């Protein structure tokens, strides 16, 4: 028997969870809401953790989605620093590690993802930073501000952003990753190599085509050994090798899972009373005609809100096209759609490797667009993708200016 029942329980107090509260309250001002999160902090935006907080463009107080007054005003009970360990979908009850059990009418799984771990000796050493949370930022920033050396493992989005951030605050940075160039799953090779060269010119040591095989600790320092025989002594080790969707509760409850928690176009799981949104949701991306999981800020906001609307009785289809963005030193971009370097790419550069538009095509049809130092053109990119037209390279010149 549940100790208390709620109309809505949201498991995951991140951006998707906070947005779901907004969505629920836009349709239902009275239903009881419990928002549960493992982080001791109330919901916050993650992009500043690897971007604006390091450059000073954002301050710590500015990263929170809502102030505490918002939750009081909207009668939302916050249960922070709380882990839900059991989901009994037949009884419609969740149980926390503390033993507290709570019943629900509708449930949202907005549990996001967990950092992928290094499966090497020393990968679980105390002090190896698997960068994900605000607490991780505070610890890493405190160490970095002492001008120490750092090894960043991983050459994808998070590894590239953290390496740039550490370099900008005066750390001596070494990057180690097995791919041939930075962010190779997204960047066409000429762009990836140009950005990598820029990193090198700024003092970042790049060890591409290599991977760590062990991490040792000696006092306050680490030694990272690599497959190619290098030994790097360092003060800081940061692993940024991606996240795995958190599907533990969904699997336990017998919900359909795959590359995330499988949901339909209304963000319902295989149990119609349970929804999923954010980094963990494997949803039908209607414009692209395939299921996808999108680990980005804009998706969490819009998917969370849509899930909240539907939990409160709407029958809305999630057909939004989320965009994502990054800043790597002075190279910034926004992208939308299927941005995958394995597709055919065409780059319409205004200034080589600095300003321009990259189109990602399959059988002549634009599937994704990356806007490189080109701003306020995301809607135009969305419209181009939605048209599903066959395009020649010539016809794409200046298509998005």
Features:
alpha/beta, FAD/NAD(P)-binding domain, 401 residues, five-stranded parallel β-sheet
Could you explain how this protein is built, in words?
The termini are far apart. This protein is globular. The longest helix is centred in the last third of the chain and has 15 residues, at 297-311. It folds into three domains: 4-114 and 243-311, FAD/NAD(P)-binding domain, CATH 3.50.50; 117-239, 3-Layer(bba) Sandwich (FAD/NAD(P)-binding domain), CATH 3.50.50.60; 330-396, Enolase-like, domain 1 (2-Layer Sandwich), CATH 3.30.390.30. Helices cover 24% and strands 33% of the residues. The chain is built from eleven helices and 26 strands. Strands 1, 2, 3, 4, 5, 6 and 19 form a seven-stranded mixed beta sheet that branches. Helix 1 (15-27) packs parallel to helix 9 (297-311). With 401 residues, it is α/β, with parallel strands linked by helices. The chain has helices at residues 15-27, 47-50, 52-55, 68-73, 134-144, 157-168, 189-201, 248-252, 297-311, 378-386, 393-396, and strands spanning 4-11, 33-36, 76-79, 84-88, 93-96, 101-109, 113-115, 129-130, 149-153, 172-177, 205-208, 212-218, 221-226, 231-234, 236-239, 243-245, 257-258, 260-262, 274-276, 281-285, 290-292, 323-328, 331-337, 344-351, 355-362, 365-372.
